[in-house]
Amino acid sequence: MLRSFLKMHGLGNDFVIFDGRQQPFKPAKEELIALADRRRGIGYDQLIVMLKPKSPGADVYLDMYNSDGSAQCACGNVTRCIARLLFSELGRKQAVIETVAGLLPVYEDAPGLIAVDFGPPRLGWKDIPLAKPVADTLHVPLALGPLDDPCCVNMGNPHAVFFVPDTAKIPLGEIGPKLEYDPLFPDRCNIEIAQIIAADRIRMRVWERGAGITPACGSGACATLVAAVRRGLSARRAAIAMDGGDVFVEWRADDHVILTGPTAIVYRGELDDEFLAAIAP
């Protein structure tokens, strides 16, 4: 039996997408890890299964997983990629995508650019969540090596944003996993390091929870902009320059955070059930 899939990416943040609306697919953790292997499997940062929506007004529900087999709650680049598929399928330029984190409106902002409305950021210590109360998530008492004093934001998933003079000088591969699993974060955390280039441009690198260093992270870009605005370091709309390229984030006056950027289809393939059968214990 063959199972069709699609490989897409948003600025190098890459995804394997299965359509489970007609052909159900609920991968086990061992299967997710095997599929994420870039030599013996397909390779991805996140794997997505499209399902029938659960809420009125939604067009699709997404089950999302990280390359370590853990569940993912929200991903801006995934959402924009799925939006592109829905626009083609439905013959319109707007849709609503449902995840465990809620409903996300998406629309075509300009030819080749898709926007997702993340809604208001969540900023309370219980919203992040943190393991213990802090006076203000604008300044969280956490430090490791050259990093300290992060601003924490929840964009459907937890983020800790550290501002630094030069992102290139931070050993993110060494520090990232330690901060991800810091006891302060009961659900682990995405770690961003950000450098203010100008009021409307921020350089950002990311260690994604469950995936490691990735070229881009949409929710991380949103968290970075929100953190920078809260610190008085940037305008409410800025380009976020990541390893994979630029996205644009705006924290509007109505408190909604809008992420806009490009998407790419890489290839279509077929997964043989023989692959999954070989993984079974």
Fold and architecture overview:
By secondary structure, the chain is α+β, with helices and mostly antiparallel strands. The chain has 2 domains: 134 residues, Diaminopimelate Epimerase, Chain A, domain 1 (Roll), CATH 3.10.310; 111 residues, Roll (Diaminopimelate Epimerase, Chain A, domain 1), CATH 3.10.310.10. It is built from 5 helices and 19 strands. The two termini are 20 Å apart. 43% of the residues are buried. The model has no long low-confidence stretch (mean pLDDT 95).
Q: Could you provide a short overview of the structure?
A:
With about 280 residues, this protein is an alpha+beta fold. It is built from five helices and 19 strands.
Major sheet size, sense and barrel closure: 17 strands, mixed
Mean pLDDT over the residues: 95
The proportion of strand residues reads: 35-45%
**Morphology:** globular
Q: Examine the coordinates and then state which fold CATH places here, giving the name of the CATH topology of the largest domain.
A: Diaminopimelate Epimerase, Chain A, domain 1
Structural domain tally: 2
Count of alpha and pi helical runs = 5
Key features of this structure:
281 residues, alpha+beta, Diaminopimelate Epimerase, Chain A, domain 1, 17-stranded mixed beta sheet, 5 helices, 19 strands
Topology, pairings included?
Elements: E1 2-10, E2 13-19, H1 29-36, E3 46-51, E4 60-66, E5 71-72, H2 76-90, E6 94-99, E7 102-110, E8 113-117, E9 143-144, E10 147-148, E11 151-154, E12 158-163, H3 172-180, E13 190-198, E14 201-208, E15 212-214, H4 218-230, E16 237-242, E17 245-251, E18 257-261, E19 264-272, H5 273-279
